[in-house]
Structures are given as C-alpha cells and as structure tokens.
Amino acid sequence: MNGENKTLLVLAAVVIGIILGIFLEQKISGEINVVSSDVKKLETSIKEIDSSIKTVDSSVKDVKTSLAEKEKVSFIRDMQEIGRRMLSLDYAGKFARWDAAETEIDELDKTLQDAAIMDSQRATTIQDFRNTYIPKLKDATSKKDAKSFENVWAETYNACVGCHKGSGSPPSAIETLREISSEVDQLSG
After folding, report:
1. Domains in the chain: ranges and CATH
2. pLDDT at residue 165, rounded to an integer
3. What contacts 24+ positions apart, CB below 8 Å, involve 125-131?
4. CA–CA gap between residue 44 and residue 22 (Å, rounded)
5. Are 105 and 161 in contact (CB under 8 A)?
6. Whole-number pLDDT of residue 68
7. Inter-residue contact 74 to 118 (CB < 8 Å)
8. Disulfide engineering: 85 pairs with which of 10, 108, 173, 188, CB 3.0-4.6 Å?
9. pTM listed for this prediction
C-alpha cells in the first residue's frame, strides 16, 4: 500500500471516527435529554404527590377538629341531660315515685356512660362516679324510704357540684345544679 492510500485510509478512519463520535454523542445526548425529561416529570409528580399529601393532612386536621368540636358539644349535652335526670330523680324521690326513680337512675347511668365515651380525659372520673353513686341510688330506691333516698341523692348531688368545681366548669353549671335542688325543695315542701 502506498503512502497516498495509507493517508486516505487514515483519513477515512478519522472521518468514520468523527461520524461515529458525532452519532454516539447525539445518541447519548438524546438519551440524556430523555432521562432529563423523565427526571423532570418525576420531580413534577413528586411535587404533586407532596401537594396531595399536604391537602390530605390539612383535611385530616379539619376532620379531627370537627370531631373534637362535635364530641365537646355532645359531652355538654350529656352533662345537661345528667342535670335533667338528677332533677327528675329528685322529684321522683321526694314524691315517692319509685318506679320513675328506677327509670331515671337507669337513664342517668346510660348518659354517664355516653359522657365517658365523649370525654376520654374525664372517663375515669365519670366511671368512678357511676361505680360509687349509681349503686347507692339504686339501693335507696329499692328501700322506698324517702329520707334515705334524699340523703343519697344529696350526696350524689354534692359529688356533682364537687366535680364541676374541681374541673373548672363555668359557675353557671354549678348555679344550675343549685337551682335544681332549690326548685325541688320548694315544690316538695
């Protein structure tokens, strides 16, 4: 092979090398662009997922707040119902309506159970109250002795007032309990 052919051959090899290099560079560059585009799409998807998670977190907080508010309202209603039951129970005892007293004690107990469910922080206190006073009220009612019943009811009432004071209940709640007691006293006698 002469020098001219060698030069042409080397030149052809260089040109082929350059063409292959350009082709490979374009192919790699294209693949990098595709990968880069995929990475950008993935980043966008991650941002969308992150945004969705934040939205879900916000919704969960809203639901928790709403449930807590509903539970508080339900607890307040249960406490009001307990006050009404105590009033009815006092009437029943003072007027010797023992069947009505038994019914009121059962309803009082159920309402106390509901209140304990609505306020887990006070559940133990409410359960202790139930375990102490519901059996005493039932026992006094079964004896059908107005004086004995009145003493147990007063003890139960004082426990209600003590709990309200101890838990920082608004003064209006305690005043309402006092009004209930004085109304029954006036009517009975």
Report:
1. 63-188 (1.20.120)
2. 80
3. 125/163, 125/167, 129/159, 129/163
4. 32
5. no
6. 73
7. yes
8. 108
9. 0.62
Here the tokens at position 168 are 């920082």
The tokens of 160 are what?
A: 């209600």
- By the 10 Å C-beta count (0-12 exposed, 13-18 middle, 19+ buried), 107 is classed as middle
- 183's tokens: 């109304």
Long-range Cβ pairs for the range 161-169 (8 Å, 24+): 163/125, 163/129, 167/122, 167/125
* 176, two tokens: 């309402």
Tokens of 146: 């107005």
What is the phi/psi pair of residue 109, to 5°? Answer: -60, -45
DSSP state of 145: -
Tokens of 73: 């309202």
Site of tokens 């107005």 = 146
**Side chain identity, residue 184:** V
Tens-digit pLDDT string for the chain (189 aa): 677 877 877 777 777 877 777 777 777 777 777 777 877 888 888 888 888 888 888 888 878 777 777 778 888 888 888 888 998 999 899 899 999 999 999 999 999 999 898 888 889 999 999 999 999 999 999 999 999 999 999 999 889 888 878 777 766 666 766 676 666 666 666
